[in-house]
Amino acid sequence: MADAKKILLIDDDEDFVEINRTALEAKGFQVIAAHNGDEGLEMAHGENPDAIVLDVMMDSPTEGFRVAQELRASEAMARIPLIMLTSVNQEGHPWRYEPDEQWLPVDVFLDKPVPAEKLLATINESLAKAAQGD
Amino acid sequence: MDPLSNPNERLLVALLRAAPDAVVILDHDHAVLRYNGSATHLFHEPLIAGEPIPDAEDPRRTLSALAHRAMSHGPAIGSRLEADFLASSGILYRVGASPALDDQDQAFAVALAFHNVDPMVEARKTVANFVDVAVHEIKAPLGAIIGFADLLLSDEIELADDKREDYLRRIRNRAEGLHVLEQKLLDFSRSLSSEPDRTVAAQDLSAIARAAIDEASDRAESMGVHVDADVAAGVEVEGDGDELRAIVTNLLVNAVRFSEAQATVEVTLKVKDRRAVLTVVDRGLGIADSDLPHIFDEFYRGRSSELRGRTGPGLGLAIAKRAIDVTGGDIHLDSIHGEGTTVTVSLPLHDPEANRPMPEGEES
């Protein structure tokens, strides 16, 4: 498919990546994956994805926040749909996150575990919203 | 003049409001000057500005006495006096007292801050923490198991045979991880109870160790780690069978978990100086110096980035340590970050002569 949308998954849980790679590819997406924040940033800039799915806790408890802020600070990624995955019960983060332009510049928060169907629906919504904005 | 026109007064109001603990400020004559919302719940009688603070019944532990001592220690500003205070509700508070000094270094007021140190509050915190950690540890494997099962059951997704097998194996691995977690949570909850259900008897530590090693070896091999065991036969110690198993299992699980593929973990059990000595050696990641002081703390997990994805709930060594303590043993841990860890446990041997009734006529 020439116009397959490219999704970048950034998550250190290999099983999570495998499940969602299979589910998204079955729906015609092209999926690329990174296992930590730095790898994810490099791929985001090198591969130019259409949307990014980002875990919060990787090499550090708030690595996902740093990645989101760095992405938003770059011109190329300033408006890319960004979906952040969190565990509300995560140690040290006992509150529910809300998107926030400065501190948490992401489009959607999803609580883990996220069923593949829900992730798919959220990606489609975000892509549609981004297309309208263009 | 409105007192709130003074910025310092506004700071004080903000501070009093923000404090989750009760705070009361008394003047030189121990009358209430200021208090915050949390303080209104601490005393059964209402706090009234200008009136004395409702005090403890025990004259040795009154707030007035603490206030007096804090104010007469006035010049030592920057210090804080602390004392216990039993509120009429029966809740025990740790009270900190610090004086406010005028330009002549004379105390004109004293601030009292009350911190609830009731053992039940601490216990509740431990339980809440325990549940949080358990839920967090369960989420990822459960998500993976459901995710793979959904893919395997999906009508829309065609999976090649090798993929199906890979996914079933991954489900098995994550479920296996949950099984280990279950055992760990049970061991921990058991060790928390004040009178754990222990059955102390002579135990064949050699047999217990071999069984634990066999179980851990299966998991280790699936991660490409080899377990090399050298277990002396017939080593008997006096203790509880479940606790002894928990000691061996938790040390082994850690050694395997922090080893790289193709590495070997060595386990030896022998008798030395009338003690059973269990040694577990790995050449894995080792422990960072900054983590070493905390390794036996409950829920503590190493902070180094290379540990991400390898740490569990942070209970293994805490469980092992408690079990070793109640068995009358010692644990010693040597670790070099990046090179590996050696854990040595020594337990007293079972003494068949102990507890035996004296033969008649030889009583002293």
Order of helices and strands of chain A: EHEHEHEEH
CATH H-tier superfamily of chain A: Response regulator
> Helical segment tally of chain A?
4
Structural class, judged by helices and strands of chain A? Answer: alpha/beta
CATH superfamily of the largest domain in chain B: Histidine kinase-like ATPase, C-terminal domain
Report the end-to-end length of chain B measured between terminal Cα atoms. 87 Å
- Kindly identify the CATH topology of the largest domain in chain B: Heat Shock Protein 90
Find the structural class of chain B using helix and strand composition.
Answer: alpha+beta
Strand line-up of the largest beta sheet of chain B:
2-1-5-4-3
Number of domains of chain A: 1
In CATH terms, what is the fold-level topology of chain A? Rossmann fold
Residues in β-strands, percent of chain A: 15-25%
Largest interface: A-B, 23 and 25 residues
- CATH top level assignment of the largest domain in chain B: Alpha Beta
Strand order of the largest sheet of chain A: 2-1-3-4-5
Q: Given this structure, which CATH class of chain A is correct?
A: Alpha Beta
Portion in strands of chain B: 15-25%
Helix content of chain A: 25-40%
In short:
Helices cover 40% and strands 18% of the residues of chain A. Chain A has 134 residues and is of the alpha/beta class. About 6% of the residues of chain A have low confidence.
